[in-house]
Design brief:
This protein is mainly β. It is 0% helix and 51% strand. The protein is built from no helices and 11 strands. The strands form 2 sheets. Strands 2, 4, 5, 6, 9, 10 and 11 form a 7-stranded mixed sheet that branches. A 4-stranded antiparallel sheet has the order 1-3-8-7, with no helix packed on it. A hairpin with a 4-residue loop joins strand 7 and strand 8. It starts with a strand and ends with a strand.
Length: 121
């Protein structure tokens, strides 16, 4: 059973930075997609960024392009989300997600518990 544990959330002011981490355990395969999602109060969950483990390709939501960077450290089974130039509209609970697959889609089976990010103006 694949398990995900996020950390790194917190409160920052506009323009600040945070780095989220997501440690994965319980999966030994090399083919998977991982992603970060977020959900703000009264809003639907949205995809923020994703990465394909095989060739390292990444995708970003338009709202975070140029500010956020998704990366992975396979030696540590850890996914990261570096968030720079944070804005109040980035405030949300951020979730790590994973799917054992060769091709990334919008379907993710495994989810972390979430970590709160709050950006104040």
């Amino acid at each position: 059973q694949l398990q995900l544990l996020e950390s790194g959330g917190g409160s920052v002011q506009t323009g600040g930075s945070l780095r989220l981490s997501c440690v994965a355990s319980g999966y030994t395969g090399s083919n998977y997609c991982m992603a970060w999602f977020r959900q703000a109060p009264m809003k639907e969950r949205e995809g923020v960024a994703s990465i394909n483990s095989i060739h390292g390709s990444t995708q970003y939501a338009d709202s975070v392009k140029g500010r956020f960077t998704i990366s992975q450290d396979n030696t540590k089974n850890t996914l990261y989300l570096q968030m720079n130039s944070l804005k109040p509209e980035d405030t949300a609970v951020y979730y790590c997600a994973a799917e054992p697959t060769w091709t990334c889609t919008r379907t993710y089976t495994y989810w972390g518990q979430g970590t709160q990010v709050t950006v104040s103006s």
